[in-house]
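[09:14] KT: can someone run the structure on this one? pasting the chain below
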Amino acid sequence: MDGTTPVAFKVNELTPDPDVQFDPKVTKSYVTYAHRLAARGLVNSSVGGMVIRVAHPGHEHGVCYAKPQGISLEEVEAEDLVITDIPFGRILRGERATTVGHQMNREILRLRPDVNCVIHLHHDEMIAFMAAGYDTIRSYSLTYGYLMQKPAHYLPASVNVEEDVAPIKTFIQDTNCIIMKRHGFTVLGRSVSEAYHRTCVLVSEIKRNIIVEMLCAQNGKTPEYISDEELAYMATHGDAVMYPALIKKKA
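[09:31] RB: done, structure tokens below
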């Protein structure tokens, strides 16, 4: 593959596939985690989204479950979901159109076969933190590096990979988290559970950044953050610490 997005079909073209059916377990998982994100106060109206990839013998990249446009992760139920293919965004099951951000999610899945869930949120504290002049989210906890396992990639406000996915191929292999200034963040995971946990630890780290900056402004001390070298070590040992059963399974 050349890393460019196929354009042989129109996005959201209705192309029902009789071999693609909704899996009750996947739809339940989608709704459960969507509502968990909302319960944490991370959902703003109908913006943001989540996709879950499911392997399928008739589709090289698998198929992905997504919510349609106009429905928030807070409101979404099983009957609202649609299934699309990954290269083109054709609707294989369901009838409602997806959001513009779905093409970003699909491109990430296409370029990262190890990723099976993408979560994109317009997070208030992250947007505020970046708007206040901070350009990097520092790590102050031992959990962030072990869970995220790759450094975040920062995009300037002028770059919107929801509308133009072309830049994604230049950085997506080296990150599990995209920070989109004045926009939100996008988190990747091998499963919906991992993507959710990475989202939660990122949100917590952003909160810690704000608290640390406020406290240091009051007491005149310098923040003590985890170094890049320490984060690199944590990244290589993440599965051993967070998912020892996964390591045992691979062995």
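[09:33] KT: thanks! The radius of gyration is 18 Å.
[09:34] RB: yep, looked fine to me
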